[in-house]
Amino acid sequence: MYIASVSSTIKFHEFPKGEVVYNYHPGNSEGPIRTISWSKDGNWLSVVPYSGPTEIVSVKGELRLLKTINEITEPTSSCFQNTTKKYIGIGTKGGSVLVYDIKSQNVKKRFSSAAGPVKHIAFTAKDTHCAVACKKDVLVYNNVTNSPPARLAVPRSTNVTCLKTNMLKRNFVMAGSDEGVLVVWDINVNSQVFCLEAHQAPVNSLAFSPVNRDLVLTAGADRHFCFYDIIDNKRVGHVTVDNCVTAVDFSPDGVYFITACQNGQMLTYDSRNINQPVHSVHAHNSSIKQVAFQRAETNQNASTYSISTSSSMSNRRRSSTRSNRNSYTEQTDLSGWLALQPVSQNDGTVYSNDSKDSFFAALGIDKHLAEGSIKAESNPVVQEAQKSALVTSGVCAVEAEGSPMAVRKPFSSTPKVPSTSKGEAAAEAPSSSEIKAIVRESFNEELKHVLRDYVNEGLAKLTNDLKEAFEFENARSVYQLRATLTEIHVANLRDFFKMEEHLKELQEEVRSLQDQLHNLCPNF
After folding, report:
1. Annotated region Disordered: where (predicted)?
2. Which of 10, 346, 377, 495 is 20 to 30 A (C-alpha) from 160?
3. How far is CA 432 from the centre of its chain?
4. Is 332 among the domain residues?
5. Is residue 5 part of a domain?
6. Where in the sequence is the domain holding 132, given as residue range(s)?
7. Do 204 and 311 belong to one domain?
8. Can you tell me the distance from the alpha carbon of 353 to that of 345, in angstroms, rounded to the nearest whole number?
9. How far apart are alpha carbons 82 and 255 in whole angstroms?
């Protein structure tokens, strides 16, 4: 696996040792490279040089130039799509946002132009949206419906410095600013999920954890890199360094992360001890602008990149829950945050086991509600049904404190008989197998009733919640539509009044010309 470090040239380092395998200098450009982006399978790299067209470079087998995109002039940023390497998004100095088809060598789609030069461009996990960072705002284009873009502003900021999308939570977009503000939006509902003054200086780089959708890594010009929990809205890790950190990125397994410095140094950290780097490489003689881990092959799973396979990590994965994560405050060991077991999908994208769709979350609904199974060992409703059924069938059930329910020896539920008829009573008494069958049948019937009531009550509550949520959404949509129509009507009236004024001015000019003509030619 390679790490690409970007300055005036691109160096490909072997991970984790940091040895340089390739050194690439694009075109005739002499300035710092603007951006790079790995393709879906990690075999191609898009390069936007300081000047000149975008280049596609292959690192499979050997380093070679595959394609120069001369059709798009003055590119400033590029990004491969996440579901295919056929298409690449390119932003230009003039504000154009284009999707280029590498195979057919033409522009497939043109989005509406941005207000200024495109500084950063990124696609969401499923390529449904394209996020673009301009001078002040972030524009989110819908790649499916081609509707007008949503405009997201970074609070208290005048310049957006960096932009990232979340591969686990496909509707999360993150940006940083010159004022040190870090903000995360949910583009499904166009609202802020997290907003905080993360640094006392410009935010230089951002990264979402590839295994924990709530954890982000930031680097600032104040010589700090920090970890933030965007759900709990707090900082969970903080390290001061000697040189300004200019770029960061996570390894695909989330255990390691890279920081690049202004002096050309590249440091590798282990998330279980973020105070000291495990590797240090002097990569460039000038400031490093970007670092990026090579993306995973499509047919590989996330375990290919799992460097730490210790039993302690496995135990932490099993015991990692939301409740114990709240105890991590300013910790130097972030393994509890990064221990969620990744799941590899068919398209090579890695998702977290606990990821949820924010559309349901915004409505207050967990879409995994119907996927859970009811277990008799842990569900109090089922335990109550067990006790009720056992008592009804004549079995004494005793529940020990802090332990599972234990069943003691059953007492006799048959009437006492005189001693003179012991043989007859023994012949008529039911056998142990019959008693077990009766107990089992009674328990099953009681359990069915309890579970039916439980499911019906849950469905009724879910139906009411959905009804209220959708009524609220419909009301909000109607309000927004009315507001839009009102704005259009007001704009039309304003234009009408301007046209009236302009017409009056023209009429006055015509009268003036007629008077002048009459004075010059009275007999005309």
Report:
1. 302-331, 407-431
2. 10
3. 59
4. yes
5. no
6. 34-148
7. yes
8. 11
9. 22
Q: What are phi and psi of 396, to 5 degrees?
A: -80, 115
Q: State which amino acid sits at residue 127.
A: D
| Confidence bin at 376 (pLDDT 50/70/90) | very low
Residue 310 within any structural domain of the chain: yes
Tell whether 122 and 161 lie within a shared domain.
no
CATH of the domain at 111: 2.130.10.10
Residue 240 contacts by C-beta under 8 Å, 6 or more apart in sequence?
Answer: 223, 224
Is pLDDT above 70 for 250?
Answer: yes
Prediction pTM value: 0.61
User: Which DSSP state fits 20?
Assistant: E
Q: Which pLDDT score, from 0 to 100, does residue 390 have?
A: 43
Task: State yes or no: pLDDT of 380 exceeds 90.
Answer: no
Asked whether residue 490 carries a pLDDT value surpassing 90, the answer given is no
Two structure tokens written together for 467: 């009804």
Same domain, 362 and 384: no
Co-location of 171 and 298 in the same domain:
yes
Contact between residue 66 and residue 58 where contact means Cβ atoms under 8 Å apart: yes
Three-state secondary-structure class, residue 242: coil
Residue 215 contacts residue 337 (beta carbons within 8 Å): yes
Pair 198, 322 in one domain: yes
Tell me which DSSP letter residue 273 carries.
Answer: B
The answer as to whether 2 is a domain residue is: no
